[in-house]
Amino acid sequence: MGAVRSKRPLELLHMDLCGAMPTESQGGNKYFLSIIDDYSRKATVFPIRNKSDVFHTFIRFQKRAERFLSKKVIAVRTDGGLEFCNKDMDNFLTELGIKHEVTNSYTPEMNGVAERFNLTALDGIKTLLKSSEVPHKFWGEALLCFTYAWNRICHKDSNKTPFKKYSDRKPSVLHLKPFGCLAYAGVPKQIRKKFDMRAKIGIMMGYAQRTKGYRIWLIDENKLVETINVRFDENKRGINFRQKVNSNLGYNLNLPDYYDDEDDSDRAKDSLTSRLVSETSTETPSISEKPNVCSDNHSLIPCTEVKGSHTF
User: Fold this and answer.
1) ∠ Cα 174 179 180 (to 5°)
2) Which of 3, 18, 58, 157 has the greatest count of CB atoms below 10 A from its CB?
3) Contact present, 97 and 35 (Cβ < 8 Å)
4) Domain named Integrase catalytic: which ranges (predicted)?
5) pTM score, whole prediction
6) Residue from 34, 260, 270, 246 nearest 144 by CA
């Protein structure tokens, strides 16, 4: 377990489990699994409910990563926790010829890459929750949002972003928005009634994981949607979720107009798609609980979440 850096993505993966968290997330998760590629330092995070979810979460990551990069995982490095050192994990890694490097007991520095990232991620979560005044149960959304930005900025040991080194593609940052800022999610006219508002008040909670868009928490409806049809007020943050106003909007704020006289074919390019992720869950639900997949370009409908952060 030397200090020599890998020469390509997936040559070595650092893994660590963080938790249990002091507050259960909105989706019922208590832990998060972090997987850091040694070569690029790209991080992928997965909020999970139980330690036993680690094995199946890693399998899903390994299959997707190898297909995306057309490369094989060579080795993984973990501590000696039972979530990593068990019969199922050992058999799986042995069958695929993946080397499992296990650190010595009471020496977290031997898995320093993953350990340091977890500490940094916890600081990021605390900062985002504090600055936006969002309840602690939204730590899962804050984690995914933090990691998304982390992978798209340069760090001190490289002049390239982890995203660029991992995928050999330059990431865009023009769409990044402050976590917790005010959002106006447009309501498609196909599902809007005569007296319905053209937009709904929400909070920016991150970035859509299957479509181009954002994850917006609709305050009054208490649900999370993914939509591209949204406008932001980046100067307004820190809305207190406990404060309600006697208004159909939930808050005394003016909504922007969303005009209906555009050509539908043009608007389709901007995607009137708004996908309902979950009425009770924000970030990744348990692996064993997957909603049904639906597809409709003109309505708010249930759809599956991509588990964990934006891996690819």
Assistant:
1) 135
2) 58
3) no
4) 5-170
5) 0.77
6) 34
Q: Are 85 and 102 in contact (CB under 8 A)?
A: yes
| Location of structure tokens 């943050």 | 237
Q: Which pLDDT band, with edges at 50, 70 and 90, does 259 fall under?
A: very low
Cα–Cα–Cα angle for 179, 185, 187, rounded to 5 degrees: 165
User: Among candidates 277, 184, 283, which has minimal Cα distance to 224?
Assistant: 277
The widest CA-to-CA distance across the chain, in whole angstroms, is: 66
Residue 272 pLDDT: 35
Q: Can you tell me the distance from the alpha carbon of 64 to that of 98, in angstroms, rounded to the nearest whole number?
A: 16
In the chain the beta strands, taken as DSSP E runs, fall at: 12-19, 31-37, 43-48, 75-78, 99-102, 182-186, 199-207, 214-218, 223-227, 230-233, 274-278, 300-302
Instruction: Report in angstroms the alpha-carbon separations of 41 from 38, 63, 242.
Output: 5, 19, 38
Taking the CA atoms of 24, 29, 17 and 209 in sequence, report the sign of the dihedral they define. Answer: negative
